[in-house]
Design goal:
Length: 176
Amino acid sequence: MNGVQGDRLINFYLGKSSDDAGRTIEDIWRFSFSDLEEVHDYIQWLFPLKTRSAFNPDAPTLRSDTITAFDDDPSLRDRVRRSLEVMLTFYGLELDRSDPTQAVIRKNTTFPTRSVSWLQPYDHNHLRLTRILTSLRLLGLPDLSSALCRCLQEIVRENPDRVTAETVAFWAKTQD
């Protein structure tokens, strides 16, 4: 990681620095469901992309050296997994760890209650999910991206009127 020692995203993910709002990654991991829903400038830090965010233009973007750092460092990927698990809990989903050879994400017992806050057409969380799916692939966790996409596709099959066809197409495109 020599070339990215000063990378603010790497330092944020390692718990060595804060985001632009002064929050550490651990602070965000402790957000309440209300915070996860109502605060809009953290998701770009947890799940960065190569392109600048229109909603949070000061958030870091992924550079090739940053992507390489995540590819090379299992502890960084573990921390991305932790960020994913925070968001999965918010959505009423969970990572099924029963088979360590296969990534599976499924609805958990809180899904009926938690999905009320995001499973509706044009909800901003659909954009967040697109970001998460894309970022997981970029950060070296394509298996988790695929597992989340399969889970979302199942949810859409069960609730076809709750997610627009455009959103479903965006989710599918993240898997290309």
